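2024-03-11 09:14:02 INFO worker-7 job=invfold-0412 stage=load source=structure_tokens
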């Protein structure tokens, strides 16, 4: 996928997160893009590394900033539980690249954002780290206990209850994908 096309997809991810009622901070964009890749098989060409708050792409962060500088993305300051925080929205720049997205791609994005988009940053860290642990198991299937143990080692600040809740959420999403139905929005 070309750099311009993937930027169009990033813009669509932001639009989809906003439609889903997400806070839409950088973490939501990062984790949605990562989950899109590793749960739906949509690779936009971003390399992810395990970082402070879960899988993170420096390239994606640079693209988000580039889109903000050119006016295709903007942020507004809103109030969160932590005080004033920026949240992204699609900008008004006439040069903003807002091409149509392939319908199957938009369906995958909307599935990810409607299911995970309203989760808080810590839940997104947890669920994306669960996926990371599952995908980096060198082809060996990992059971629930293995995944929980992996996350506990990598993210000791996450509680057992958070890991359990997010593992259940992840399994609910995967079950919906396997049965061929769009997973229902997470509560």
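2024-03-11 09:14:09 INFO worker-7 stage=emit residues=187
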């Amino acid at each position: 996928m070309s750099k311009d096309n993937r930027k169009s997809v990033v813009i669509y991810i932001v639009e989809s997160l906003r439609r889903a009622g997400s806070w839409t901070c950088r973490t939501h964009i990062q984790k949605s893009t990562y989950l899109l890749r590793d749960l739906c098989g949509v690779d936009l060409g971003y390399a992810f590394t395990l970082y402070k708050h879960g899988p993170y792409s420096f390239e994606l962060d640079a693209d988000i900033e580039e889109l903000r500088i050119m006016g295709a993305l903007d942020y507004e300051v809103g109030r969160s539980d932590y005080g004033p925080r920026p949240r992204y929205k699609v900008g008004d720049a006439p040069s903003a690249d807002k091409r149509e997205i392939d319908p199957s791609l938009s369906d995958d994005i909307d599935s990810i954002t409607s299911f995970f988009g309203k989760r808080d940053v810590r839940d997104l860290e947890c669920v994306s780290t669960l996926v990371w642990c599952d995908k980096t198991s060198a082809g060996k299937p990992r059971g629930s206990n293995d995944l929980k143990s992996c996350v506990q080692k990598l993210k000791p600040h996450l509680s057992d209850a958070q890991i359990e809740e997010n593992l259940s959420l992840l399994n609910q999403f995967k079950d919906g994908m396997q049965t061929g139905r769009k997973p229902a929005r997470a509560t």
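2024-03-11 09:14:09 INFO worker-7 stage=report msg="Residues 42 and 136 are 17 Å apart (CA to CA)."
2024-03-11 09:14:10 INFO worker-7 job finished
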